[in-house]
Amino acid sequence: MAIPESFLQELVERNDIVDVVSEYVSLTKRSGSNRFGLCPFHSEKTPSFSVSPDRQIYHCFGCGKGGGVINFIMEIENLSFPEAVAFLAKRVGMQMPEEADDRDAKRRRRLLDLNRDAARFFYSCLSKPEGKPALDYMAKRQILPTTAKRFGLGYAPDTWDSLIKAMSALGYSEYEMFDAGLVRKGKNGGHYDTFRNRLMFPVIDVRGDFIGFSGRILGDGEPKYMNTPETPVFSKSRNLFALNLAKKSKSGHIILAEGNVDVVMMHQAGFDGAVASLGTSLTSEQARLISHYVNEVIIAYDNDGAGRKAAQRAIGLLEKLDLRVKVLSMSGAKDPDEYIKTKGADAFRNLLEKSENHIDYRLQTVTDKYDLSVDEQKVEFLKEASDMVAHLPGAVERQVYSMRVAGMAGVSAEVVAQEVERRRKRLVRSAQRTDAKSAAHPERQFQPRDKELRYDDPESAAAEEGIIRILYLDQGLCRGKKLPEPEEFSSPALARIYSVLKTKYENGEVISMASMSAVLLPQEAALLASVLQKPEALRNGDMALHDYIEKIKHRSELADTGEDLRALANKYKETKGYEG
Fold it and tell me: Does residue 223 have a cis peptide bond before it, meaning omega lies within 30 degrees of 0?
């Protein structure tokens, strides 16, 4: 049973898109009634994310994401359509109607329940004789029982099928366990437990759902950490270990660590803003997730070459989101866990307060690569450092750090400043050439951002977009008109959107982004939002609609009679010896 349109209509009326988006994005009024902010779906410094309170839609001119309030929650919370509806219903205290018959939603719920029950099983194993290796390991690492309980730590027994037997007894099939990444297929067609002889760290998302696991091996062997593979409910690039706890921190910052044990020990010592990126370098999705909760991030990666390299990458991702980024320098310890154990929580707190900003850290990283007593290396240092400073957005920052670089190398501040500005001008010219190239091909700006939706016939697509806008915004203009059929559209994506709109119009149904999103694919909803963002003079709607219909009809007639000039041109280009 589909979710009633009357319910969806009330839902979007009670969840104003500006209010909902503002919980994730800082919006400012810039153009008419529209609000603008930095897009939460891609990294940018200049706001290109637009929210229209009049039309209750959002659209990013940078990455092309768009839709209504339900689409926004689907994207930002990684939910299916029914789950996003339930999320918004809970937000405003609405009672959900009878659940829709959505196989994906039921499958997702089943996997989340399975992960929760698996976490309970792993936790229970700690109190059994077979759990002694995990208890010994936790004692060695000084993880307290209260901490283990808070994080739901557990133990995966050193057997082939303990979890399979336990979950089978609860009614789960081996196929469901495989779907959740908890078991693997054997060579002979059977299954065996994925996690064996490992300390288990449940991965819980910000909504409190058990989405996967990270297991640390207790003996020798590789990999040291093993994560749940990609599943319908788990993606390690889109989640962070312990963010479900860190998001409640009053510290005002997130501490980004490499290992799960580092995070557990920091929380145990009172630093409850710590998270880890599940065994991978920080991803852009994880950086945007962090930006939803804090404005400051302190990077506390391991004090080795790999850690410094990972920190550089993280800095680049975080600063694009206008987050304040600091880096922890831990002398005398390789990671936060060791620092806290050897020097104490107070010393670590002082270290956090004295953490250096990311520019100082990056400059020091460049300095460490060169011997400044050697002229050749000093020249290379000045080139790399000047280039780093040239990329800084603020003129004051560039001046201050130019002077710093000059002092470190023992050269004139004026010389460094000139080199920085020379490199800065080169960057500006490169950006201007890119803008000019785009301006020289305005038809490219008209194309959808999603390459799979690109228009083969932009002229006809412009008319098709126009009919969609009029049909969505003012159905009265369409009464008595012979509208084209979807088959006459040149763009399959626009034809699909138009087909849904036309059916709703002919059946007298309410046309809204919510009702459209129930049947459109996410990329189609984004395309519709993009179309609706474009201006349409409805006061001249009759004339515009007539022109749109005639243009589509003319194009369709050409195609039917085989007189498509674009096709003829392409045919000639393929002829041997033809030069266009």
Answer: yes
Give the integer Cα–Cα distance in Å for 109 and 200.
22
Distance of alpha carbon 558 from alpha carbon 567, whole angstroms = 11
Residue closest to 358 by CA, chosen among 391, 383, 380, 332: 391
CB 364 within 8 A of CB 408: no
d(CA 480, CA 121): 66
Burial of 94: CB neighbours in 10 Å, binned 0-12, 13-18, 19+: middle
Q: Which two tokens stand for residue 354?
A: 């004295």
Find, among 65, 66, 61, the residue nearest to 438 by Cα.
Answer: 61
SS3 of the chain: helix, strand, coil, percent, to 5: 55, 10, 35
To which H or E segment does residue 343 belong? helix 336-343
- What's the mean pLDDT in 335-358? 94
> In which element (H, E) is residue 156 found?
strand 154-156
> How would residue 444 be classed by pLDDT, with cut points 50, 70 and 90?
low
Q: What is the mean pLDDT of residues 20-24?
A: 92
Task: State both tokens at 475.
Answer: 């159905």
Which residues contact residue 198 at a Cβ distance below 8 angstroms, ignoring those fewer than 6 apart?
155, 156, 215, 216, 217, 218, 226
Q: What local confidence, expressed as pLDDT, does residue 153 receive?
A: 98
Three-state secondary-structure class, residue 322: coil
Residue 241 DSSP one-character state:
B
| Residues ≥6 apart with Cβ < 8 Å to 16 | 53, 56, 69
Choose among 392, 415, 394, 393: nearest CA to 405.
415
Q: Which of 146-160, 466-480, 546-560 is the least confident region?
A: 546-560
Nearest to 36 by CA among 533, 564, 544, 574: 533
How many Cα atoms occupy the beta-carbon half-sphere of 316 within 13 Å?
10
Task: State pLDDT tens for residues 280-304.
Answer: 789 888 988 888 888 899 999 988 8
| 208 torsion bin: left (phi>0), alpha (psi -120 to 50), beta (else) | left
Q: Which two tokens stand for residue 230?
A: 């990609």
Classify 186 as helix, strand or coil.
coil
Token pair recorded at residue 16: 């104003």
Whether the per-residue pLDDT at 573 is higher than 50: the answer is no
C-alpha torsion 506→512→513→515, nearest 10? -70
Residue 510 C-alpha from the chain's centroid: 32
How far apart are the C-alpha atoms of 531 and 49, rounded to whole Å? 15
Q: What is the DSSP letter of 130?
A: G
- Cβ partners under 8 Å of residue 414, min gap 6: none
Written as six digits, the tokens of 253 are: 């910052």
Q: Which residue has the tokens 């010896």?
A: 577
What is d(CA 457, CA 512) in angstroms, rounded to the nearest whole number? 27
Q: Token pair of 481, please?
A: 């008109």
| Span 36-44, average pLDDT | 87
Tokens 């693997």 belong to: 184
Distance CA 122, CA 134 (A): 11
In the beta sheet, which residues pair with residue 325? 297
Instruction: Record the tokens describing residue 224, joined without a space.
Output: 């040291």
Per residue in 223-240, pLDDT (tens digit) is 889 999 999 899 888 899
Which structure tokens are listed for 178? 């495989």
Query: What proportion of the chain, given as a percentage, has pLDDT over 70?
Result: 92
